[in-house]
């Protein structure tokens, strides 16, 4: 139970504490091993704060310049991987402040923190870091959407089976299926873009909880740090982690959409209707023939972990009293892991799509005559003016007749069709047998917005491309 005798530069002997901390407590309490990745944001915030303190007379212009020069030197050390962590560097804030006092002396360096708490400091750093990464993610999503939409345009003429309940349903375009997965990603990008202004609010100047006693200009701080505005209430500002919860919830939903995309690609890979590039597949340690879609399986697996992160932080927050509590330190490992996962998943999915090869013959081979049963019902509506509920029953009877005779829908003779309903016959130039055999006409008839006609699919792809332009 021997105490270490060290509390770092902020809480050394002679202040509030008379003794050292338990070494286990030091390790338990420190966050420098993960929050050091916010070194740039911490230094940026401190530079702005030094300028603001000079404006109100806490620092002279000379002291401000000395501090800023020292902080810039520390920034170079971090950038060049030369910053030396020392015992007592509990977090990124204490580490940078300790190093600053080494460079410029305690007489000047010790003035930087006047009126500031690590509570508003960490909130500022985390918001700056989160917004920066959200902007990067939007840029990467724009690239993903560009890759996917151009892929869809390139292969717009390939037809394939569409499924519901994993059962053959109706003919569609392969590109229509691709765009069905890009559309939710567009919604994800839109949501992320809407989240940024809420995260991009400046908490600096809120102090520990009660505000700043030196009348620091918070609007100036927000302007210097490129925030959109300032937080409204100092007590809330230091404990608000809504912007992290929002991102964690967002990444759980986004990765759910990625998981669904991956699952569909795994099924197409099973059918051999697409070829996944070797760069995104692995082999078996035993079976020489295996080519496993591991990239897609890993994408599929990330969604469950993402949901766990989201629930984890929400549970941490739900019982917290007002203002800062050390529980909030647990937000950053979850946030950092979430951001890293999103970056990785977007990169992998982009690579898979950019190198994916559709096998047209096999995709067309998934089409089955029974998928035209709905077209048969619609033929009776359009050309014989039969109510749809009745045509649905008539077409269903045709399907049952095929099953009873072990034949396909397109193999029914005119006599067999007429035995079910005499209205199953040609109408002028429109041949009923074409309805039972022509998949191209089936997809082309869906000409309303969002449908499978060539024009509408290309329109959807162009909308996706235009949307992507607005993300960067």
Describe, in plain words, how this protein is organized in 3D.
The mean pLDDT is 95. A hairpin with a 2-residue loop joins strand 1 (159-164) and strand 2 (167-173). The chain has helices at 23-29, 32-35, 39-55, 61-79, 92-104, 106-109, 118-154, 174-199, 218-224, 234-237, 242-270, 294-317, 331-355, 360-365, 373-384, 388-405, 414-420, 432-435, 439-444, 454-469; strands spanning 159-164, 167-173, 201-202, 229-230, 274-275, 357-358. Helix 11 (242-270) runs antiparallel to helix 12 and helix 15 packs across helix 16. The protein is 60% helix and 4% strand. With 472 residues, it is mainly alpha-helical. Strands 1-2 form a two-stranded antiparallel sheet. The radius of gyration is 31 Å and the shape is elongated. It is built from 20 helices and six strands.
Shape: elongated
Strands of the widest sheet, in order across it, are: 1-2
Largest sheet, in brief, is: 2 strands, antiparallel
Q: Mean pLDDT across all residues, rounded?
A: 95
Beta-strand percent range: under 5%
**Helical percentage:** 55-70%
State the order of secondary-structure elements, H for helix, E for strand.
HHHHHHHEEHEHEHHEHHEHHHHHHH
- What ranges have pLDDT less than 50 throughout 5 or more consecutive residues? none
Q: Give the helix tally.
A: 20
The total beta strand count reads 6
- Structural class comes to mainly alpha
Radius of gyration using CA atoms only: 31 Å
């Amino acid at each position: 139970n021997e105490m270490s005798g060290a509390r770092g530069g902020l809480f050394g002997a002679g202040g509030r504490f008379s003794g050292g901390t338990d070494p286990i407590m030091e390790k338990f309490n420190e966050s420098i091993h993960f929050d050091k990745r916010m070194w740039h944001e911490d230094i940026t915030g401190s530079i702005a704060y030094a300028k603001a303190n000079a404006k109100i007379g806490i620092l002279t212009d000379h002291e401000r310049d000395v501090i800023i020069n020292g902080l810039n030197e520390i920034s170079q050390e971090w950038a060049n991987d030369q910053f030396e962590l020392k015992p007592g560097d509990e977090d990124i804030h204490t580490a940078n402040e300790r190093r600053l006092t080494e460079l410029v002396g305690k007489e000047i360096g010790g003035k930087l923190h006047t009126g500031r708490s690590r509570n508003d400091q960490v909130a500022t750093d985390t918001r700056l870091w989160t917004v920066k990464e959200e902007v990067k993610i939007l840029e990467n999503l724009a690239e993903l959407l560009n890759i996917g939409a151009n892929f869809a345009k390139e292969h717009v003429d390939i037809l394939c089976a569409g499924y519901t309940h994993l059962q053959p349903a109706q003919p569609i375009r392969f590109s229509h299926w691709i765009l069905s997965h890009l559309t939710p990603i567009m919604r994800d990008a839109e949501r992320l873009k809407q989240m940024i202004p809420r995260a991009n609010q400046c908490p600096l100047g809120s102090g520990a909880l009660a505000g700043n006693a030196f009348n620091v200009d918070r609007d100036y701080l927000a302007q210097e740090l490129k925030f959109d505005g300032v937080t409204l209430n100092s007590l809330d500002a230091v404990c608000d982690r809504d912007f992290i919860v929002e991102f964690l919830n967002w990444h759980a939903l986004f990765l759910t959409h990625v998981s669904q995309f991956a699952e569909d690609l795994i099924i197409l890979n099973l059918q051999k209707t697409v070829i996944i590039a070797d760069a995104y597949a692995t082999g078996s340690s035993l079976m020489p023939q295996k080519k496993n879609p591991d990239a897609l399986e890993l994408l599929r697996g990330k969604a469950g972990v993402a949901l766990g992160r989201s629930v984890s932080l929400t549970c941490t927050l739900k019982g917290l009293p007002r203002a800062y509590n050390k529980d909030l330190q647990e937000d950053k490992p979850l946030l950092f892991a979430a951001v890293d996962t999103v970056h990785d998943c977007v990169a992998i999915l982009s690579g898979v799509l950019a190198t994916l090869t559709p096998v047209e013959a096999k995709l067309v081979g998934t089409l089955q005559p029974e998928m035209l049963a709905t077209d048969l019902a619609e033929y009776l509506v359009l050309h014989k003016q039969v109510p749809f509920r009745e045509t649905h029953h008539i077409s269903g009877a045709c399907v049952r007749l095929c099953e009873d005779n072990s034949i396909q829908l397109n193999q029914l003779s005119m006599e067999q069709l007429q035995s079910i309903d005499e209205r199953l016959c040609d109408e002028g130039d429109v041949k009923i047998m074409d309805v039972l055999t022509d998949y191209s006409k089936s997809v082309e008839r869906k000409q309303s917005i969002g449908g499978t006609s060539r024009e509408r699919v290309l329109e959807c792809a162009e909308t996706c491309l235009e949307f992507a332009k607005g993300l960067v």
